[in-house]
Amino acid sequence: MKILGISGSLRADSHNTKLLRAAAELLPREVEFEQWTDLKAVPPYDEDDDVQPGPAAVTELKAAIAEADAVLFATPEYNASIPGVLKNALDWVSRPPKSSPLRNKPVAVVGASTGAFGAVWSQAELRKVLATIGARVLDVDVAVGHADTQFDDDGHLVDDQLREQLGEVVAAASRTNTFLAARYRRLVKHRGKGRAIVAVGNSVLTIVWHLLADPEARYHDLGPDFYESRINQQRHQRHLIHQLERLTGHKVILQPRPEQPAA
Fold it and tell me: Which of 50, 83, 148, 230 is 20 to 30 Å from the Cα of 245, by its Cα?
C-alpha cells in the first residue's frame, strides 16, 4: 500500500511538512510513504491552460495521487482558511470532475499552526473542498497548536498525546485497503466467483470499491474521460493488476474498454 503526503506549506522549515514526516515514521513497515513536494511549481488555474497535455507539475501531481491508495494532507492556516497554493492545486486536480484522481480516494487531513487551535478552520475548509471533489474524507484529525514548540531539533513530535492522535490518523489511512480487500474476498467466496475481470481503475482502492458496489459485474466503466488520461499506461496497469491480485487473492484480467455501439 502507498500513502501520498501533501503539505500545504512551501516553507523549507514548515511545521506541516514536519508533521507529514512524523506521520511517515508511524506507518506500518509494509506501507510506502511518498511526499509530493512540487506544489510551488503548479501554475495558477486557468481554464485556457486546462488542455492535454497540461502543465507538467499538474500532470505529475495527478499521477502521484492516482498511484497512491490514500492521501494525507497537512495544512497550515492563512487568514482562517486554506493556503492559496493548495486550493489552486486542488482546483487543477478536480478537473475533469468524472476522472479526477481524488474521486473515491481515501484522504485524511491534519494541520499545524503557531496559534492555539492548530489550523482547525483551514482543516475544516480543506475537508469540505475534498468532499466536494469526491474524495472519501476519513473522520480523523490532528490539530497541532503552538507548532513552533511541538517539534524537537530532529523534527519529531514532543507531545505524546499528539503523537498518539497522529498514529490513529495514519492507522485509519493504512487499513482502508486492507478492510475493503477482506470484504471483497468474503463477497467472492460467498458468490462463488472465481476471478475478477476489471477494465481499469485509478487506484487499487477504486477498483475494489467498484467491485464492492457491484460484485456481480464483470466490467466497471469509470467514464470516458478516464481512458484518455495519462495513468492508463501499461506500467500502471501492471502495477494495478499485481496489487489487486495480492489484495484479493484472485486472478485479475485487464479487459479493454468495449467499443460503444454507433448511435
Answer: 230
pTM of the model: 0.70
183 lies in some domain: no
Residue ranges of the chain whose pLDDT lies below 70: 176-263
Q: Is 63 within 8 Å of 199 (Cβ atoms)? A: no
Is 116 part of any domain?
yes
Cβ-contact 142, 110 below 8 angstroms:
yes
Condensed to tens digits (0 to 9), the pLDDT of residues 148-179 reads 999 999 999 999 999 999 999 988 888 765 54
263 within some domain: no
Structural domain span for residue 223: 192-254
Domain identity same for 171 and 106: yes
The closest alpha carbon to 137, from 121, 147, 123, belongs to 123
Long-range contacts of 44-50 (CB under 8 A, 24+ apart): 44/88, 45/88, 45/91, 45/92, 50/92, 50/95
